[in-house]
Request: fold
Amino acid sequence: MSGKTVASKRTNAPSTQAERPVDETKGPLDAAELADAAIAAALVFSLLAIGRLLAAGTAFQVLGTVVFAVLAARHRTRTVVLAVTGTALFTVLLGGIGPLTQSIVAGLFGWTGGVSLAKKRSIPRTIALTLLVAWPPVSIATVGFFAVATELRELTFENVANQWDGLTNIMGGIGNMIGLGNADRVKEWGADRLDTLFRWWPLALPFAQMIISMLYALLVRRMSRRVLRGVNDALGPVEPLALETASSLVAPLPLSLVDSEIRRRDYLVNPSVSIAVDDGAHVAVAGRNGAGKSTLLDVLAGIVPNDDLVRPGTPGLGHPGGTAYVSQRPEGQVLAPTVSEDIRWGAPDDVDVDGTLTLVGLEGFGERLTSELSGGELQRLALASALARQPSLLLADEITSMLDPVGREQINQLLRDINDRGVAVVRTSHLAGDLDEADEIVTIGEPQVHEPLGLLNTVYVGRPLLTLTDVSYVYDKGKPWERQVLVDIDITVHSGELLLITGSNGSGKSTLARIIAGLRSPTSGDVELAKRAPVPGASSDSDPGKIWRAIAFQHARLQLLRPTVEAELRSLAGAHDVNERGRQSAERIPLAVAALGLTDLLGSRVDALSGGQQRRVLLAGLLARGADVFVLDEPLAGLDDDGRAQLADVVDDLRRRGAAVIVVSHDSSWGHERVTRVLRLDQGRLVDP
Amino acid sequence: MSSDVFRDVPIDSVVRRLRAESKLLSMVALSMALVFEPTWLMIGIAAVLGVLMFKLAKLPVAILPRPPAMLVWGLFGGFIGASASGGEPFVGGIGLGGGLDYLRLIILGLVLLFWAGMLAWTTGLAELGAGLRRLIGPLGRLGLPVDELGTVLALTVRALPLVAEEVRVVTDVTMTRPSPPTEAKGPGLIAHGLRLTVDAAVAVVVGTNRRSRDLARSMVSRGSTAAPRPEPMPIRVVDVVVVVLAVALTVVSFLI
Reply:
C-alpha cells in the first residue's frame, strides 16, 4: 500500500467515523460500565441469597466484597455506587435488614479494597483508608440503629448474656458431677464483663467494629488481590464501549475497504482485508478462526476504528436507517425481561412492536418472557430488534452457529427475506450451507485447508463401561414448578465407543450429560458403573475401583481454575495426591500433553490461550486423570474445519486408549463416519435418529 | 440455589394481582415493625398475617424450603445453651426465660424470611424490577440519576439467571476436582480451601464478564443505554388499602 493512497483516505476518514465522547472519567456510565455494574449486582445478590439460606451470611458477604473490590479496581466510583445501590434495593427480596446491611458493607469495604489495590497502596494505607471511609458509616449506622431499636438491642444483648449463662451452667453441672466444683467464679467474671460491655455499648460496638474492620480489610485485600490479578490477566484493561452519538449524517452504504490492516486495539488481526458492500447486497465473509471475521464486522459497525474505510456518512449503529448488528449467542443479546420491552429498548418511540414481531414470525409474543424463549426464537427476536430500526445494513456474526438445523434454516430464510426487502446483509459463518445463501463470498486470511479426515483404523469397541437403566430426571419434584426432563432412558456405553447424543434445545441433553458424568443422580432408575481395568503391574489383589468419568463443558474457561497450563494440568489430573492414584496421574501428564499437542504451551497462562487451546488443556487434564468415560458438551461450537479435524484426532486417541467418548451436541452433522451410535432425545425420551 | 427457593410460583390469586410496589412497600413497613418492635405480639401478628396471605395466594405448602440439617442442629444447640441459663418465667420450677428469648430471636428471623418468600413467590422478577424502578422514579426530582440506576436494575433482572448458570457450572466443576492433598490438615486444608475459593471466584468473575460484554455490545448495537421506562400503571383501591394497612400497623406498633 503506498503512502499516497493512505493519505488520501485519511482525509476522507473523519466524517465516516463514529463520534465518541472523549472524556470517559465523568458523566453517566457507558455501556460497558452499566453492564459490569449489573453483573456485579446480580452476582453479589446471588451470593447474599445463598448465604441467607445457608445461614452463612458472613462467608458469602466476604465473597460479595471481593466482587465489588474487583469492580472498584477496574472501574470508576460511580459504577460501584450504582452497583451497590442496585444490590441493596434487591435485598428487600431477602427479608429483614441483614442482607441490606451486608450489601452496603460489601460495597464500602469492596470500594476501599479495590481502590487501594488499583492504586497499589501499602497495607497500612489500605487500613487507614478503610478506617476513614468504611468504618465510620458502619459504626454510626449500627449505633444509630440500636439507639432506635431498643427492643431488638435488649433482646440481642440478653441472648448473648443468656448463652454465656447457660454455657457456664452446663459447665458447672458437669463440674459438680465429676467433682471439680461449680463454675460460679468464671460465670460471674464473664457476666460482669458482658454487663460492662452492654452498658457502654455505644463505645464498645464501634471499637469492636474498628478491630473487625481492620481484619476484614486485610482478608478482603488478600483475596481480592489474587482474584484481581487473575481477572486482569484474563480480561486485560477495561475497554470503554460508548454509543455512537445520533447524527444527521447516517449513511453506512455503499462502503468499501481496500487492502486494509484490521486491528483490535494494538493487536494486528489481519494484515490485508478488502470488502465492498453496496445497497441491498448479500455478502458472506468466510475464513478460519482468528482470520478476523468478527473484527471486520466490528470495523463495518464502527465499533473498531479503521481509517481506510470509505463510506458516505456515519455507520449509525443502532440508529434508524443505519447499521444493525446481530451476534452469535442468542441469550447474549437480550436486554429486557419481556419481548416487547426488549424490542422497545433504544427503538424509536413510535416503533410498531407487533408488526415487527410478525415480520420475524413471532406474532403474539409481545408479553412473553425472554427467559422462556428457545435459541431460535431469541435469534429471531434479535433480528426483530434490528429491523425495528429499519437499517440499511445488517451485520450478522455467526448467528446460526448455536442453533439446531431447524432453527438454522428458519434464520437463513429470514435473512433472505430481510435482504429481499432491500436491506444489505453482511454475514459470517463457518458453515458451507450458510455461505451459499449469499450472492458473494469474501474470503479473508488464508483459505482453510480442507484435509480429509483420515478414517480411524481399528478402534476396538469393547466391554460395557456404564449402563443407564430406566433413568428419569425430574426437576423440583413435588414443587409446583416440577418439570420432568428425562423419561426412562436406557443406554449402555462401551469402551472405545463414540456416542453422539443430539436433540434440540431443551430436549434434556445437558441433564443427561450431567447424569452420565456423575454430576447429578437420576431421580429414578440406576446408573451402573463397571470396574476399571486393572493397572498393568499392580498387585492382583488391589481393587481398581469403579470407572472414572469426566465432563468438558462448552465454555472451557469456566472449568480451568489454575493460572498456568502446567498447574492446571496437575490440578485437573489430581497429581498432587501423594497416593498411588496421584502418582499414576502425574506420570500420565507428559503423555496427555503430547497427545493434545500442548508441549509448547506448558508455561503459558491459561488466559493467554484461545478458546480452542483452553479446550485442549481441559481434555489433557481429564485424560491424565485417567478418566474412562468422557462427556463432551458441544465440543464443536466455534471451531473451524481445522479445529474440528484436530479435535477428531484427539477423540480417536482417547478411544484407542479404551475410553468411551460421548458427544452431546445439537450439531448432528459432525463426524458421521466415526460415530458408532447416534441417540436422539426428544422431550426427554430417546427416539429413532 | 437461591433461584430454586425464592422463585416465582405462577398461580393466579388476589395477592399475585397486587402491584409489585404495594407488596414492596408493605413488606418494608412490616419489616420495620418487626425489627423495631420484636415483641411476641408483633411476631404473632406478622406470622398470622403471613399464613393468611399464604392461603390467599393459594400457594402450595410444598414450596416451603427445607432448612439444611446442619442449620437445624446449630439452632438446636443454641437453644440448649440459652435454655440452660434459666430465668423468668418459671414453670414447674424450670426457668424458661433464656430459651424463650432465643426462640423469639429465631422466630423473628424465620418470619422475616417467610415474608421475603411471600414477595418472591407471588411476584415475577421482571415485575419486581419494574416496581423498584417506579418507586425510585420520583427521586429523580432530587437530581439523583434514577434513569441510570433504572437501567442497572433492569439489567440486573436480566443478569440474575445468567449469573446463576455460570455459578452452577463453576460449582459443579470445583466439586469434581480431585480432593485436596491427602497430607493437608488443619491450616493446610484451610489454605487449600481458600485457594480453591479464590480460583473459583476468578473463574466466575471472568465467566460472567463474557455475559457483561454481551450485554454491553447489545446496548451499543441498539444505540441506547437507557432501559425503556416501565409503563405507568393506574393506582387501584386495593393496592392503596394494603399499603395503608401495613403502614398503619407499623405506626401502631411504634406507638404502643
Q: What stands out?
A: Residues 1-23 of chain A have pLDDT under 50 and may be disordered. Chain A has 20 helices and 16 strands.
